[in-house]
Specification:
With 285 residues, this protein is of the alpha/beta class. Helix content is 43%, strand content 20%. Helix 3 runs antiparallel to helix 4, helix 4 crosses helix 5 and helix 8 runs parallel beside helix 9.
Length: 285
C-alpha cells in the first residue's frame, strides 16, 4: 500500500531501522540459542479489542527489513474498523526471523492503531457539524510522520507538520513581543515569503484586534462554548476559526456545535492508548 512519497518512505525506513537497532534484533540470544535455524512457522496478527487498524504496511516493512524471505499477507487495510479477535495479517517464514521482528513490528502497529482509533471516535462525535478534527505537534519525537498518518487514517486532518510549514503566533510569542498587537505587527512587517499565518487569541477583544489586522486564521484558546459562539458571530466568516484547549470526547460535540471550522485535539497523539494486538503462532513447521 503506497501512502507516502519516495522521500517520506525513506524517512519511515530510517525510523524502522533505528527501532530495530534499539531492539538489538541481531543479538537476540533467546532466539539464537533455543530456536532451530531451519524451523519455519505460520503466525497471525490478531486484534484483542475493537478499533481502527493502522500501520499494516509499516509492520510488513519491519518484518521485511529483518528478512526479505518472510511472507506477509494483509487481511485488512489501514483505516478498516476491526473487531476483537479479528485477524488482520498472516506471516510465514523462518521462526527465528519472525520472533526477532515481532515486538518492534507490534509496537508500531499498536501505537498507530491506537491513534487512528481514538481519532475516529472524535471524528464520529462531530459528524453532524462542519468542524474538522485536527492534530497538533504534540507527537512522539521522531515518529511524527507516522503518527500524523495515523490521524489521517482515523479520519482526522493534519495541522502543520513542523515549524517551517506554517506561522502560528502563540501566547509565549505574544508575551515576549509585548502584546498581541505588537506581535502581529512585527509578524506582518517581517514576513518575507508566502506562508499561511494563524494567530492565537484568548479573549474576544484580542479576536477583534486580530480581525482588524486581516488575519485569516485564528486559534481560539481555551474559550468557553459561549465565547466560541460569540467569536463565530463576531468573525462573520472573515477568518477560519480553530477551537483548542481542554477538548475531550465528552465536550467535542458541544464545541463543534458553536460553528467553529476546526477543533485541534492534542490527546489524539499524546495520550492515545495503544490498541491491544498480538502475534499468535498457528502452525509450527
Amino acid at each position: 500500500m503506497k501512502v507516502f512519497s519516495k522521500e517520506e518512505e525513506g524517512k519511515v525506513k530510517e525510523i524502522i531501522k533505528k527501532a530495530l537497532e534499539e531492539d538489538k534484533v541481531n543479538e537476540d540470544y533467546t532466539t539464537l540459542w533455543c530456536v532451530p535455524k531451519d524451523k519455519r512457522i505460520k503466525a497471525e496478527i490478531v486484534v484483542k479489542q475493537d478499533g481502527v487498524i493502522c500501520g499494516l504496511w509499516v509492520t510488513e516493512m519491519v518484518f521485511k527489513m529483518v528478512s526479505s524471505n518472510i511472507e506477509f499477507k494483509c487481511l485488512k487495510k489501514d483505516g478498516d474498523k476491526v473487531k476483537r479477535f479479528e485477524r488482520v495479517a498472516t506471516i510465514k517464514g523462518s521462526a527465528a526471523n519472525i520472533l526477532r521482528a515481532e515486538r518492534t513490528a507490534l509496537n508500531f502497529l499498536q501505537r498507530l492503531s491506537g491513534i487512528a482509533s481514538l481519532t475516529a471516535k472524535f471524528v464520529e462525535r462531530v459528524k453532524p457539524f462542519k468542524a474538522k478534527i485536527l492534530d497538533t505537534r504534540k507527537t512522539t519525537p521522531g515518529l511524527r510522520i507516522l503518527e500524523k498518518y495515523a490521524v489521517r487514517t482515523g479520519g482526522g486532518e493534519n495541522h502543520r507538520k513542523d515549524l517551517k510549514e506554517m506561522v502560528l503566533l502563540k501566547d509565549n510569542h505574544i508575551a515576549v513581543a509585548g502584546g498581541i498587537e505588537k506581535a502581529v505587527d512585527n509578524l506582518l512587517k517581517n514576513k518575507d515569503r508566502n506562508i499561511d499565518i494563524e494567530v492565537e487569541v484568548k479573549t474576544l477583544d484580542e479576536l477583534r484586534i486580530v480581525l482588524k489586522k486581516g488575519i485569516k486564521r485564528i486559534l481560539l484558546d481555551n474559550m468557553s462554548t459561549e465565547d466560541l459562539k460569540e467569536a463565530v458571530k463576531i468573525t462573520e466568516g472573515r477568518a477560519l476559526l480553530e477551537a483548542s484547549g481542554g477538548v475531550d470526547l465528552s465536550n467535542v460535540a458541544e464545541i463543534a456545535e458553536t460553528g467553529v471550522d476546526f477543533i485541534s485535539v492534542g490527546k489524539i497523539t499524546h495520550s492515545a492508548p495503544a490498541l491491544d494486538i498480538s502475534l499468535e503462532i498457528v502452525s509450527k513447521g
